[in-house]
Write a structure and sequence with these properties.
Immunoglobulin-like; 10 strands; single chain; five-stranded antiparallel β-sheet; 139 residues; 2 domains; alpha+beta
Length: 139
């Protein structure tokens, strides 16, 4: 009987030591989480304006929040004629000229002379490392 009590006492002591250690680890984990930036933080990257054929593309920026990149730009028809668009595609490249992603966007079917329309597309990855953008315009 005495050996059983001694065994359970030792078992209880070991359990208490392990529980105490895990509490300290939990506190350290909580402190680490307090110091981390939340994933909902919004960050933006802006690229230079450019011209593709008769279209000026300006205000190009990438905003990343909650795991989604939002790409926004303004497309302006600088010609004297209405431009009919079938599609507008973006090819995003990193600093090593590697293609990150190709995405399509919509600015409507027509852009009148002097008219500006906003291009907006969502990408389910972080593309803030974009350094260069190429455009494909299909009329």
């Amino acid at each position: 009987m005495y050996q059983k009590i001694k065994f359970f006492t030792c078992l209880l002591a070991v359990a208490l030591l392990l529980t105490g250690c895990s509490c300290e680890n939990k506190k350290a984990t909580e402190e680490t989480k307090k110091n981390e930036k939340p994933t909902t933080e919004e960050t933006t990257k802006v690229l230079e304006d450019t011209k593709v054929e008769e279209l000026k593309i300006s205000g190009f920026n990438i905003t990343f929040k909650d795991g989604i990149s939002t790409v926004v730009a303004t497309v302006t028809n600088e010609s004297k004629e209405t431009i009919n668009l079938t599609s507008l595609s973006l090819l995003l490249y990193d600093k090593d000229h590697k293609l990150i992603v190709e995405t399509a966007g919509n600015v409507g079917e027509t852009i009148k002379p002097g008219e500006s329309k906003q291009f907006n597309t969502l990408i389910t990855e972080d593309v803030r490392n974009t350094e260069k953008v190429e455009y494909k315009i299909i009329k």
